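Late entry, written up from scratch paper. The run itself happened at the end of the previous shift, but nothing got recorded in the book at the time, so transcribing now.
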Amino acid sequence: METSAKNLVPKSLLEQHKHRLSLQDKTNDRENELINRIKEIVKQEDIALISHYYTDDKIQKITEDLGGCVSDSLQMAKYGKECNSNSLVVSGVKFMGETAKILSPNKRVYMPTLEATCSLDLGCPAEEFKQFCDKYPDREIVVYANTSADVKAIADWVVTSSIALEVIDFLDAEGKKIVWGPDKHLGGYIQKETKADMILWDGACVVHEEFKHEGLLNLKKIHNDADVLVHPESPSSVVDLADCVGSTSQIIDYANNSVAKKFIVATDKGIFYQLIKNNPDKEFFEAPTAGNGATCNSCSRCPWMGMNSLENLYDAISNKRNEIHVAKETIRKAQISLNRMVNFK
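Output as recorded:
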């Protein structure tokens, strides 16, 4: 199956997304009021906030202020499972809320919106993926976390980008052959690094697919003393230019510990909140998604992540809206692959 990530994003969503980007740095009186109300309810009702590094700065900040979890997909999943609260509000995209529910079926899981999805999830329908996997019955099925609950129920393993290399290396050492889905760029990177026998589903991230070798090379010429930080969902020609290839957490850790003072970053710009907060004496530049050979459909911000706002976060918390529900049988099956993910190492 061949997909184009950008074709999975509705044009109306892209228009709304670009409007949101033009307003994102402004905090108005209404937002200040929402922040105060959210803080009050979360404290009163012992709600755990869990937010991804790609969400809006204001959502990351309020999550931190309230002692919640701002992290990558793996740590979000672990936090939701291990925290004492019985009510979780997950800011991110839908598969993150589903993962929290699968790992903690007795907890109530809410999201600011249930419309926020992912091009990798959309590009890997469960029934089509199952038919794909059925062609290779002798192979271990390993799927990226950016997939639906139904796809996770098909899989033997779920991985995030922070453990994908190690899991595939482990399986390869056991003599296992792999069916991988859905991100072809991440899969290709893992295949190159581990030399594992992998058959890849053809999916891609709408944000990372837009980074271009030529644009990054040109920016590197301007900032020739900058380290290049690349998420492995990016095309191989972009990954080849990286000083650090890693997950969101690995990129943040590298920047925190590096002696370099300048960085070019090829991942969703939502990560800049953490990078700048942790490293006020360092400079960070977006890898280009516009110019020769590029499209800037996402402009290095996920349009679905951008659907999370203080307004709908408050609505979810105050009115208990957008609760995540996953069928019991799907939970039972998906727990096998997800528990392998959170218990790995």
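The domain at 26-116+304-319 is CATH 3.40.50.10800 (Rossmann fold).
(Scratch paper discarded after transcription.)
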